[in-house]
Amino acid sequence: MLVNPIKEQNIEFDYALVDPNLNSNYLYELEGHLISLAPDYAQKISDSFPYLINLNNIDEDLLERIIKDDEKCVAQGFEPFFILKFKSYPTREPDIVEHLRLSIIFEMNEKKYLYRFYDPKIWILLNFFKTNDFIFKNKNFQYIQIGLLGYQYLFFIPRYEGSINEVDPDILFNININNRLILKKGLRILNFEQYLIEVEKRFNLIHKIKNIGLKKQDDIISTLYHVELLGVQYLETKFFIKLKDHSKGYAIASQRVIKLDWNNFFQNYDYIEDAIKEKVMYV
User: Fold this and answer.
1) CB-CB contact of 202 with 224 (8 Å)
2) What distances in angstroms separate CA 282 from CA 49, 251, 258, one per listed residue?
3) Domain boundaries, the chain
4) What is the dihedral of CA 92, 98, 101, 103, to 10 degrees?
5) CB 142, CB 156: distance < 8 Å
6) Confidence of residue 283 (pLDDT cuts 50, 70, 90)
7) 45, 184, 205, 223: which has the highest count of C-beta atoms within 10 A?
């Protein structure tokens, strides 16, 4: 971890990021306060980009209501309206906006992509895996609060003049797989340490799965889903190898397996727990 969570303090946050694709509950009430972070060339798809809000400009009663609603959302495992709140280092607002616009885009193979580093599910793993660009992305933030795994976490970020803005595509690939798998399995409320232990194990499995020849995200996710249910020894079974080598790929091939063939597999390899059987068969 580059920065660790700290004990709750009375921090007066001055800004928040809002992603209407995750939670748009108060979007229209705050319409006049939204600062789009879409670059000029992406105005036609600006709805795909987050907004910056200066919290000092919001009516106090409305702000308090949003914060209370966000606390409920996070406790229930949902995305809050303020996806990330921060107290900035002394910085001009136009400079914060310019930096964020620069930070949420990355280029790969001459194509531009939205870099959702501000999403807590992504932010925490960029932090955990100590990515090169983490300091650059967060250089204007002094304190950050995110909602994750049912809890609110506060971080202090020392003032660094990080200048590295190179994205690690392999890390982003693995983070995307991790977060898509969580959506597939359903969010479990874990404490911070348990979650990071689980993620590290999952990343090791992703590496192992890639090394046996799977490249497509859907195939890796479906394989990972089954391995976490059946154990890593599943990767050595003839049943898995046949599905892996299918012309349509593992994800599609495993969905087409009929119940009888799954049950024959369970009998041959002693997978007998009914709860596991049901989860395995209905990917």
Assistant:
1) yes
2) 34, 12, 10
3) 5-167, 175-281
4) -80
5) yes
6) low
7) 223
